Every structure is written in structure tokens, then in C-alpha cells.
Amino acid sequence: MEMDGIRRGSLDVIPEEAQEQDLSRESTTVETYNVVSDRGGRTFQRFSVETDESLHFDPCETSSPSTTGAEDGNDDNDVFKNGKDESEINSIRNRFQGKVAEMENFSGHLEEIFLTVEENFGRQEQHLEQHYNDVLLTLSQRYDERAAALEEEKKGKLESLYGQLLLCGQALDTSKELIETAQEVYRSQDKRLFLKAVKAVVNRIEEFAKEEIDLTLSTNLEFNTSLADLSDVKTMMDSINAVPAPSAPVINPQMPNSATQTSLHVCWSLFSDDTVEYYELYYRPVLEDTPADSTCAPPESKVKVKETHCSVADLLPNAQYELWVTATNTTGISPASEKALYMTVPSPPVIKQRECSSSPEAALIRWESGNTNPVDSYTVEFSQMGTDGTECSITESIVAVPTCQCLIQLQPGRRYLISVRAVNIGGPSDRSDVVTVSTTGTFFYLLEDTAHPCLSISEDGFTIFYGDEELPISAMALDDSAFTRCVGILGNLIPVRGRHYWEVEVDGETEFRLGVAYEDTERSSYLGANGSSWCMRHILSPSRHKYEFLHNGRSPDLRITVHPVRIGVALDYERGTLSFFNVSLEQHLHTFHCHFQNFVQPCFSLDNPGALTVHNNIEAPEYTFI
Amino acid sequence: MRSGCFFALQRLSKCLNSRQTFVNSCYRSTMALTQVSSNKCAGGFQKVFEHESTELKCKMKFAVYLPPKAETDKCPVMYWLSGLTCTEQNFITKAGSQLAAAEHGLIIVAPDTSPRGCNIEGEDESWDFGTGAGFYVDATQDPWKTNYRMYSYVTEELPKLINANFPADPDRMSVSGHSMGGHGALVCALKNPGKYKAYDATALAASYAGPRLDVLIDQGRDDQFLSASQLLPDNLIAVCSEKKIPVVFRLQPGYDHSYFFIYSFINDHIKHHAKYLNA
């Protein structure tokens, strides 16, 4: 881990710092002693870098200036005099600035570490103090207990000795009395009395002599000190060094924007008293189609980490995972945490370039989800491109788009970069590929599924060809939406009411129809022959070009003297007009007046073999909307 | 031969306008205009003026419509050349051009169709020759050549007069007309860049080489002159096709040669002119 490295590296600095700064945490100065060798001798130079980005050079000795210009600020004047490149100085300055930034960064780290150390120290100190207090309390309790017991014993012994003393005294008194009685008897003059009394005395003396006086000490002089049981104190003392097994960590719910397509960033926390050596994170995908009690649940994976956070990689996009954590220290392993559900973000969507369209006021973007599971929503991001091709810093977003398409209102005459992200609980996916939309004019692609089978479309999608060769009937497998009689195709105009303009390039020999049609226009009739299409038709007669402007099969009678090779089509929903122009002459050819109820699509068809090219995204010339 | 149709074209003359500023100052002192009438119309004013023409050597009237925009800005001018027997009054009272002109900010100038009161022998004898039938050409023979110089009048004198007295933009002018006036408009436009004496519009078109034109022609299909083969639009279309002169020729079913026909399509034509004049 990077932090570990920094910590280890910084540890060397700390004692020095501590000495110098008297353990003051306020100082964030990092000092480095740099030895610069010199011709004359050795100069010790002190580079002091402070947080306010100022750079000081304090030569300790004012000896001859160093010649190592690149390292030495004192040489600046000489450098200019010597005419060295300013660029070199700049690069040196940049390097110094880089170093300053690096050192600042480092000092920032150091400050953080100081704080952490201080905090840890405080906690440890408190912990120790508490432990020792506990031990002392226990010991003094023990002392009191033992003292009381001894006192009790002493009292017992004294009492018994006293009793014995009393008994001895009584025995002495009795023997003294016997002796006196015997002497009295002995001294008696009266023999009869003597004889009378002696018998009784002798009996008493014999009796007394029979009584053996116990002269051994009734109590033991030694105090009976049982061995003190200090095992609990011992465990308490040990517990200062040994720690209890941690309790179950608490896994955090998923944080926004913490996941990527293939990885999850998981965080958890521990109870502050716990000491943990490492954690083990378990995870497995939650499959919706297997029941919860299934035995064939996917196997769980395990990662061992020392931090309270971890990034697991190589996951499936847009998938749910359940995760849980255990904590382990030297004593043992904790119970598992609660299981948390995390979700990886979806894969980026894929913009369907060929289905996007735009006009000067708006753009319609369509995309594919890019994910097999459904996602919650999509976010469309767009930013304006500067005139010099640089990306503008302001990115606007449209969030919570439920479907795979979005109509964006834009400013005319700009260039935009548009991208899409898929979003689920885990957060937004990476950006899709960026599409560029320029709002110069109306831009659309041709709807290839509407094309008559005889019609082929160029690679870029803007030129249609009608070949000579007849197709076999088998190739006429028709799409429902394809034209069946008229060799035609529809365009995909943006559904925005407003003004639209596009141009069509044809040659003099091609017979064509072009104009607009409702999207559901009859596929089995010719363009212009019904009420749902409006078109200009070119017919080549042997003598001349003929033009018709057809709607409902009818056309006004008009002649055009110059054959238009580039035809401008201007559609104005608000005014209900559809106008045709000869672009090279800026000549107005014809205008249909019709209030289009629904959105119309550009339509093109070829009535004889030939080609026709659609030109898109052209700014409508002023004359087209007078 | 009459070219019985509306005629519209643009960029009448570049060389004419280059010396306009200088000429304007000379004319201003000599060319006195007398206002004959002034009526508020479509937010602007429809006026008729009378002046002493130097080209025609007689008093001439012309009508001028000033759109609201002319009060503050210089506006482009569209010259309208009327048909046979008309005066400056026909167009301004019957064609209904003022609303569209006000919308697009065009000044419309409608001159009379011939000199009047010149006492030339036989000038009032025929409806299609003489008074009311100047054909917008310069006469080359006596007794007509002194007064009947309508071509010079509409291409030289009248534009100078208009530019000197009204808020007109001398760089933006166009010409349009009906019937004989349509032919006249075509002559003015086609003849201007070259030096051809021929006045036949069809012949002119065949030899035209000049600034690009854009011509819009409406023709009533039930025009009595069309059915009488006095109008030969097909010749014009064929030549314009050959010479790549851009013309949109519209045959309008049911319409005749009258001002009802003009009234129906005047908006399209004013818009057509506005497209170039306001570009």
C-alpha cells in the first residue's frame, strides 16, 4: 500500500522532527540537507520548503558560489549573463515547482500521520492506564482480604493461649493448696487427728498426682499462610498485551459512484475497541434466476485485506453481488458481518449513429443499452465544441431518460459532442462513444428497411442506386415497411416541427421523384400519387425535361427552362409549405401549401436506372424561407 | 409581337447605378415633382406624382408606393410596367400589390405606359399603337422618335428620379410587368447588359449574356390572346431552355388576361422579387 510506504518512509523523519520541534505537531516543515560539492570546498546548503510555496536558499557558508546552476538559485544572475536559454530556466523553475509541490504533498501526508500517531498514542495511553488501574484495584483488594484473614487468625491464637494460661494458674493454685493442707496435717500434734486426716490428704494428693497437666502449647506458633491466588491478576496483566477477538465488522451500504463496470469499492467499519490484524471479504454474484435456498449457489470469492475498504475487480457489469466481512486478530476470528448487496455499474450504451438525426434546433439520439439486464435509466451528456475544435468545459446532462432515445434541444449553428451513460444503483457507466452533432442544418439518414428491393444504398448511406438488372422474384422478399411498386426509400427526419432543408443531387438523365411523405404512406403506390405524399417528379421526354409537382396524382402545369442538378427541398411545418429550389441558380421552382398534421419523412424514388445523392446538414439559404 | 405575360427579373443594370450618386445631385435641382395624390395604404403611402420628362418632352405621371419601412430605411424598388391602354392608375387600384409590398418592404413604382398630349398625328387612333401603347421601346422614326422614348424613360430617367427623391436603394431594383409591360420588362432586362438593337424579346433571350437572371412567368391558360396565338410563350421557353436562362413558366388553368389574374398571383411575384431584393 502506498500509505504504508509513506508511513514507513516518514518514520525516519519523525524522531528528528520530534527533537527539533519539541513534538510540536504544528510544524509541517520538511527539511532536507543537501550537500553540494564545489571546486573550492564543500558548501552545505539548506533547502527549506514550506507549505506556502516559497522556496528559500540559505547558504550556511558564504563561500564561493556553487557552479551547479541547475541546483542552485544563486546562479540565476550568472545564468542570465551567460545568456543561457530562458527555457532552461523555465524548466528548472518548473522542476523546482514540481519538487515544491511534491514536498508539500509529503508534508501534508506527514501532518496526517502525526495526527494519526497522536490519536493512537492517546488511545493506547488511555487503554494502559485503565488496565493498570484495574490491576492496582484488584491487588489492593487482595491485600485487604489477606490482612483481614491474618488478623482473624492472630486473634484466635491469642485467645487459646490465654485460656491455657488460665488453666495453668488454676492447677498451680490447686497444688499450692494441697501442699499447704499436707503441711498443716504434718504439723498437727494430735496423732489421732493426723491419722484421721492423712488418709484423705493422701488420697487427694494421689488423685491430684493422677491428673496430668498438659503443658504443651495448644496453638501453633506458625501462622498458616495459604498461597495467594494471583492468577486473575496475572491474566489481567497479560490482557494488556493480549487482545480479545474482534466483534463482527459493520459493512457499509454501497456508496454512490463507488462502483465501476467490473469492480466494486466496499467499505466497512469496526468497533473502536477492536484490534484487527486483517479482514477477509467474501463476495458472490446474486443470480436472479436461482432460488435463494438453492444448493448450487455460485461459489464465493475471498480477499484478504488490512484496510477497512477494498476494491474487488473482475466482476460482471450491471450485476448484483452480496458481500460480507470477517475480522481476524491474533486471538481469533470475528463472526461475519451482515450481508450487503452491491451492484456493478452497467456497460456503456452503444449509440446507433445511423438512427440519429438532427436539425438546427434539436438532435435525436438513439442507442442500444449495451447490457443484457435492464438498467435503471440513461444520462445523456452534451457539450458545445468551440470554434477552434476544443471541447467546451461545460457539460449539460439530461438525466433519468427511461428509453433508448432522447430528443435534445440545441442552439443552431453550433457543434456538440454527445454521449450517453447507462445508470443503475451502482452509478453511471462509462461514457459511450461520443457522437458529434453539428446544428448547421437538418441531418438524417435513409431508412434502409423502407427501400424497395431494387434499390441499393452506398456505403455512406446517402446515395441510392437503381441498377439495370432485374431481380429474381425470390429476392423480392419484402419487408413490411418497404416500398413495393415505387423504387423508393424514406428518410429518417427528426420529429421536430420547425424548418428543415436538404438538398438532392441528380443528373440530367435520371428520372426521379423526391419530396416528403407521411411515414405510413402507401408502400404500394407511387410517391405523389396519393394524399400522403408530396413530390417533385422529373420525366425525361425525347425532346425536353418535364417536371411535375405531384400530390394526390395532380400537378400544376409549369415549365422550367434550366434542368436543376441540385435541388433544395425546404419544409416549413409552421407555415405549412414544402418548396423546391434549383440550388445553383437560387431559383424557386414550386411550393406546396399543406398543413402537415403529422410528421413527414423525406422520400426519394428513382423511376429509371440511375442514382441520386442526398446532401445533408446544409444551412438553409436565406431565400428558401422568404 | 406581344409577350402577354407577367415578367419578373432582377439586377436591371449595374453600370447604370455606378454613377448614380453624381447624377442624382444634378437632377435634384432641375427635376421638380408635383404630388398629384397621396393616400395612406397598408401602413404606408400610395402616391402619384407628375413631372416634366426630359426624355419624353412632356408631363408624365407615375405612381409610387412607399412601404412603412421606407420611413426609416432605404428600400429596394420594383418597377411595374403596365399593359396596353393602361395608365399608372390601373395597377395601383386593381392589382392589390400594396399589402405584400408593405410586408416585404418594397417600393413599387408604376409609370404611365406612354407619353400623352404630344399632339402627334394618329397617336390616339389605335388602342394598340400610340397613346397608352408605348411598348417600352425607343422609336427611331419621325414623328415618334422625339417623344416615344419609353425605353430610355423607364431605364434611365425614371430610376434617377426615384433614387433622387425617395428613400430608394439604387443597388437593388427589379422590373416586372403585365402583357405589353411584361414584354417591356423582359426587354429592359435582357437588353441592358448587351448592346443589341433588336427589341424582340425572344431574339434577345437567344443572345443574352450577362448577370444571372431569375424569371418567373405566370400565364393564364384561358387568356384570349394566348388562344389567338398572339402570345408565343413556347418560343421563349424553348430559347431560354437552350440558352440556360432560368425561367419558371406557370400555366394557370382558368385564368384570363385581366387584372383578376394579376390580383391572384401578384403576391407570388412580389415575394419572388423580395427574395433577391432583400437578399
TrEMBL record, chain A:
UniProtKB keywords: Coiled coil
Presence of the UniProt keyword Coiled coil in the record: yes
SUPFAM superfamilies xref list: Concanavalin A-like lectins/glucanases (SSF49899), Fibronectin type III (SSF49265)
Segments for region (Disordered): 1-29, 55-86
Keyword Coiled coil among record annotations: yes
Ranges where the B30.2/SPRY domain occurs: 424-623
Coiled coil stretches, renumbered: none
Pfam family, one: SPRY
InterPro entries tied to this protein: B30.2/SPRY, B30.2/SPRY_sf, Butyrophylin_SPRY, ConA-like_dom_sf, E3_ligase_FN3/SPRY, FN3_dom, FN3_sf, Ig-like_fold
Biased composition (Basic and acidic residues): 1-10
Top-level taxon in the UniProt lineage: Eukaryota
Ranges for domain Fibronectin type-III: 249-348, 349-442
Protein name as it appears in the record: (Atlantic silverside) hypothetical protein
From TrEMBL, chain B:
EC number per UniProt: 3.1.2.12
UniProt GO MF annotations: carboxylic ester hydrolase activity; S-formylglutathione hydrolase activity
Pfam families: Esterase
GO BP annotations listed: formaldehyde catabolic process
Entry GO CC: cytosol
UniProt keyword list: Hydrolase, Serine esterase
Active-site residues, Swiss-Prot/TrEMBL: 179 (charge relay system), 223 (charge relay system), 257 (charge relay system)
Homology family: Belongs to the esterase D family.
Function summary: Serine hydrolase involved in the detoxification of formaldehyde.
Protein name: S-formylglutathione hydrolase
Organism: Menidia menidia
